[in-house]
Each structure stands twice: as structure tokens, then as C-alpha cells.
Amino acid sequence: MSNIFQRLARLVRHRWAERHLRKALPPATLKELELLIAKSELGHTGQVRICVEAGLPWSYIWRDATARQRALSQFAKLHVWDTEHNNGALIYLLLADHAIEIVADRALDRTMNAEQWQTLISDMQSAFQGGHFSVGLVSALERVNRQLQAHFPRKSAANTQRNLSDAPVVQRHLPGRNR
Q1: Which among 44, 103, 104, 134 could disulfide-bond with 148, CB atoms 3.0 to 4.6 Å apart, if both were Cys?
Q2: For range 14-41, the mean pLDDT
Q3: Residue 178: its pLDDT value, please?
Q4: How much is the pLDDT for 173?
Q5: What is the DSSP string of 146-161?
Q6: How many CB atoms lie within 10 A of CB 166?
Q7: Domains parsed from the chain with CATH numbers
Q8: Angle at 22 between CA 79 and CA 98, to 5 degrees
Q9: Domain named TPM: which ranges (predicted)?
Q10: Do strands 47-53 and 169-171 pair parallel, antiparallel, or not at all (unpaired)?
């Protein structure tokens, strides 16, 4: 358990990260990711979401929550778990902590072992460290989509209803800053 000064320092770090969010993921990149998700979901029955937060909400910082805990919360809040074949995936980024989490529903999770998921995350981290957020996210999306297409192919073009938005969720926790 951290003390009050550690929590305040973490809060400042998380709010400071808000300033860098638009630079890391400009509107054109977000649109590119949205179109890629929409196109890929025509070939499989899964649902893929991206959620990016500059920093955690105060309540998460106060209770020393991890990026993984927040990713699991967002997985539920964004209804990624609510797929017919239990094959949703959430790619979650927490910029302030330089954290990447991938939460896969149980059917999709069984198609890859822990080492494969970790390799995907490590490759994203390498791209991000070089400032290539778009490249890292596109590569991760392509790999997740290949898994979904291999194990959960869409059998018919007639049933292409997607119940979740394809747009990446970008959250800021300063008043009036969400987009």
C-alpha cells in the first residue's frame, strides 16, 4: 500500500500524461484503426476494441489499482465479453504507466498461449518506445484478427451485424477532455 505522497505523485504523473495523448494518437490514426477494425470484423465473428487512457481516474489511483485491473473493468464496461462465441478482445493502453494489456474472452484466449500473448505485447512495446504508436497498434490488430479469422471465421456474409463500435475509446480524466 502506498502512502499519500506516492499516490499524489502518481496522480500528477497520470494527469501529466494527458498532454501527450493527442500526439501519440492523432485523429487520423484513430480513424485508421477504426476502419481496420471494421474491415477485419467482416472476416470473423469476434469483436475487437481498443481503449487508450492517458492516466487512470482518481479512484483507481487512490486504491493503487493496476493497469490490468482497469483493463478488466473496461473489458466489462465496453461489453467486449458480450459476444456470441466468447471471442472478444480488448487492447488496452495506459500511457502514464507505459502499460499494455490485452484482455481476451475465454474462447479467443484458448487459441494462444501466454507466451504468444506476451510476444504480441512486447512487439507493441518496442514500436511504442520508438514513438510508432500507429505501427504497434496496427500490427497487434492484424495479429489478433488473424487469430480470429483462423479460429472464428465468418461463415456467411449475411450475418455481419457487429454490436460494438469499431472506434477506439480514448479517455482523458480532465474535465472536458474526452474524445
Answers
A1: 44
A2: 89
A3: 47
A4: 72
A5: HHHHHHSB---TT---
A6: 18
A7: 4-152+163-171 (3.10.310.50)
A8: 70
A9: 24-146
A10: parallel
pLDDT digit string, tens, across residues 85-123? 999 999 999 999 999 999 999 999 999 999 999 999 999
| Residue 44 DSSP class | B
C-alpha cell at 172: 482523458
Give the closest residue to 88 by CA, choosing from 149, 51, 47, 50: 47
For residue 92, what are the β-bridge partners?
A: 51, 101
Q: Is it the case that residue 148 has pLDDT exceeding 80?
A: yes
Q: How far apart are CA 89 and CA 82, in angstroms?
A: 11
User: How far is the C-alpha of 69 from the C-alpha of 79, rounded, in Å?
Assistant: 16
Q: How far is CA 133 from the centre of its chain?
A: 12
DSSP-assigned beta bridge partners for residue 110: none
